[in-house]
Design brief:
Number of helices: 7
Shape: elongated
Oligomer: single chain
Distance between the termini: 34 Å
Number of strands: 2
Length: 144
Amino acid sequence: MLTNLTLLQNDYFFTKLISHERLIEANKIEYYLALNKTQNTWETEKEDISPWLLFFLDVVHRQSTQALRVIQGDSVESLLSQKQLALWIWANERGDAFSRKDAVAALGFPERTVEYSIHKLVDLKRLERLGQGKATYYKVLKES
């Protein structure tokens, strides 16, 4: 969380599109190896944080590369959880605007899950928000 906060505070806004934590989780073996190598030299005369730093910079690079693909219109599906993907597929098949309540009823997911999924797809510029409050509807943005 602190890493994401620091990146956001320094204008690395792609962290809103691609989860830093998800990338680390997907590469946790490499993460723990880099951390272990770094810790082995901790408090020695030859302290070396380069294994961890290289891992961290690689994650930031992957994160920015994936965000660029999203911005350029490449497939968004690989960035979504199973439930987010289910909502995305449902919204595309539906074809017309929908409310959060419509999505909850159709998919059977908890309201918070649907809300988070919609928010993610809005951030990814795949859904457009129409209206406000209880009159809020969403529609799929067509790729140009």
